[in-house]
Design goal:
The chain has 4 helices and 2 strands. By secondary structure, it is mainly α. It has a domain of about 90 residues. A two-stranded antiparallel ribbon has the order 1-2. The relative contact order is 0.15.
Length: about 140
């Protein structure tokens, strides 16, 4: 576990159940393990950059779930989501929604996940001195 529930709460994370957090932490750590070729397995201490990366990834996963759960009010098609209101007027009661497909929303959030991982973990090394995001293979791996 790269980030504990208490650490998440101390960083200002959303008020969620601990069991829900455990599921989100597992998903976020699986994403990091994929990006780092499991170079964090066997570590006893984790750098602060990893913990902040996990916090941001969990927030993005929650945003992704929220975006996919919200449908456009005038659409019966579940492939269209409503991430937010882009224009609203009061007297004429006009409301315009920024709608995009579920695929576009997921792709945007997935791209953001990759950006966050690169931002926080670029140049970070594990206890063996291996860069976490190095795409090659070290001789002792």
């Amino acid at each position: 576990m790269y980030l504990t529930y208490d650490e998440y709460a101390d960083m200002g994370g959303q008020d969620i159940e601990e069991t829900t957090f455990n599921d989100l932490e597992f998903e976020a750590s699986s994403i990091i393990d994929w990006w780092t070729f499991n170079r964090l397995h066997g570590e006893t201490e984790y750098p602060q950059a990893l913990k902040k990366c996990m916090y941001r990834l969990i927030k993005l996963i929650l945003d992704r779930q929220s975006a996919l759960a919200t449908k456009s009010p005038d659409s019966s098609d579940s492939s269209v989501i409503q991430p937010g209101i882009i224009q609203e007027s009061n007297d004429g009661v006009t409301t315009m929604y920024n709608t995009l497909s579920a695929k576009e929303a997921v792709n945007t959030l997935d791209t953001e996940m990759g950006n966050i991982i690169r931002m926080y973990l670029q140049g970070i090394r594990n206890s063996l001195g291996h860069k976490l995001l190095y795409r090659g293979v070290y001789p002792d791996e």
